[in-house]
Amino acid sequence: MRSHHDMGGLPAGPVEAGEHDYQLWEKRVDALMVLCSSKKMFTVDELRKGIESLPPDAYDRMSYYERWISSITSALIHRGVISIDEVRAKLADIEKRPPETAGEKA
Amino acid sequence: MPHDDAHGHHHDHDHDHPHVHGGADHHPHRPDADDTLTYCRQLEIAVRELLVEKGHLTRDEIRGAVERMDARGPHLGAAVVAKAWTDPAFKARLLADGSAACQEAGITFDQSTRLIVVENTPEAHNLVVCTLCSCYPRMVLGLPPDWYKSRAYRSRAVREPRSVLREFGTELPDSVAVRVHDSTADMRYLVLPMRPASTEGWSEAQLAALVSRDSMIGVTTVKAP
């Protein structure tokens, strides 16, 4: 069966010529992808597999770099670079920070 | 790969349940929002800080990678195109080995990606897409525009390229063949557009200013001044 990401040739509507300026968090996700793969923490193929195996509704709902950070996180946990518990604890800590400055620490 | 994400949800793959991945279901979908700390933005902060704290990356490396990507953009591709238009030997090298010729022209590659340059001629027009994801000649054009990653472009560019081209205002005579190149992570394409008439004697810098990003993706052509 054709996977959800494999959409070449399927019917679709007109191309909306929209674009947006990439936000800092998106650029940082991109940087994490480039750096972690060049340091062999995971391969780009693993990341792609993570994105391609997202459930179709999640794939469609998430924006591009949301899919990437979701897959990066899964790959790093899968490879044992970071653990689920560490991510959970860190997210709980971030929840307590003022939203404006939550991402400025690193 | 199992989807044991940071919330500990396990996603089996029956795909029937109408929600949940990574907790994004707690928030409405906001593709471009930067003013709300969505779950995925929190995840970016968490992963970045953990990698720094555990010594896998430094803050300088992350900042450097962001700055390197910020410095990339269509001006790099335009300079390569203009050089190819004015230097036949360079053009031959560019078409023979896009990666080597671009690196010779001072462009840096972050990953070992092959760049293939395809030349538009009066007989054939080239169009670049990545149907499976979003692979893009980022070393020469920077990050892709949103439409390049959209379902509509990825689905239709390979089936009805002339209709897609028309939506970008590009009408090609039936006598011109349209060749669509589907990119992969390891193989990216850049279109070498046709040099417009009435630009004889122009400098590389003058020519480069005519070359748009979209013409190097192949959805438009370079217009005569």
TrEMBL record, chain A:
SUPFAM superfamilies: Electron transport accessory proteins. Gene3D superfamilies: Nitrile hydratase, beta subunit (1.10.472.20). Pfam families: NHase_beta_N. InterPro entries: CN_hydtase_beta-like_N (IPR049054), CN_hydtase_beta_C (IPR042262), Elect_transpt_acc-like_dom_sf (IPR008990). Residues 1-101 form the Nitrile hydratase beta subunit-like N-terminal domain. This is Nitrile hydratase subunit beta.
TrEMBL record, chain B:
Keywords: Iron, Lyase, Metal-binding. It catalyses: an aliphatic primary amide = an aliphatic nitrile + H2O. Gene3D superfamilies: Nitrile hydratase alpha /Thiocyanate hydrolase gamma. The keyword RNA-binding does not apply. Belongs to the nitrile hydratase subunit alpha family. One of its GO terms (molecular function) is transition metal ion binding. Residues 42-220 form the Nitrile hydratase alpha/Thiocyanate hydrolase gamma domain. InterPro entries: CN_Hdrase_a/SCN_Hdrase_g_sf, CN_Hdrtase_a/SCN_Hdrlase_g, CN_Hdrtase_asu/SCN_Hdrlase_gsu, Nitrile_hydratase_asu. It is an enzyme of class 4 (lyase). This is nitrile hydratase. The keyword Nucleotidyltransferase does not apply. Fe(3+) binds at C130, C133, S134, C135. Residues 1-33 are annotated as: Disordered. Pfam families: NHase_alpha (PF02979).
